[in-house]
Amino acid sequence: NAGVTQTPKFQVLKTGQSMTLQCAQDMNHEYMSWYRQDPGMGLRLIHYSVGAGITDQGEVPNGYNVSRSTTEDFPLRLLSAAPSQTSVYFCASSYDGGSYNSPLHFGNGTRLTVT
Amino acid sequence: KQEVTQIPAALSVPEGENLVLNCSFTDSAIYNLQWFRQDPGKGLTSLLLIQSSQREQTSGRLNASLDKSSGRSTLYIAASQPGDSATYLCAVPGGSTLGRLYFGRGTQLTVWP
Description:
The complex is a heterodimer of chains A (115) and B (113). Chain A has no helices and 11 strands. Chain A has 115 residues and is an all-beta fold. Chain B is mainly β. Helices cover 0% and strands 57% of the residues of chain B. Chains A and B meet through β4, β5 and β10 of A and β4, β5 and β9 of B.
């Protein structure tokens, strides 16, 4: 049972480059989300999705793009990387978005450095 | 906007002690509260989820309580062990908006033998 799988685990980008962080879950969860974790700032929601074809912005969406074409996958795209996007990125999923009775399941994270 | 605060930010205790971690939130219109554990270099693992209608939830040596009216939750760890060393985070939904969770910055716990 893989749970939530994120790839890659580590990535170094140069300013201005673009890339996609992959996230896949095998638990048939409707809800998926992306967070970034920064020292002193805690976890902040970037984008989330309550089902295939439906996405919405979180607290810090600027510079990121998402789409949800299948229930299983929720990729996060960095359009033009900036040093301020250096962070650890976590993908999470749950049955009902964590707002009712379903706990949130996290991947192991992608550590991104932008130089 | 929901604001979540965790106290203390760090805690270092000898093995065997019982300890309490605190979490407070500003918007009490929540459906539930979750406690997570994060080990260095890893993602978060859900420990306990307390529904708004519950006052307590227990799992092994862990007990979490919730007081919605005062905007507070505590995580009680009994007979702490070195393996409990990790960062503990609490999270609550942002009011009635499905899908938005707000996290505290966590309490970093070290249990030494």
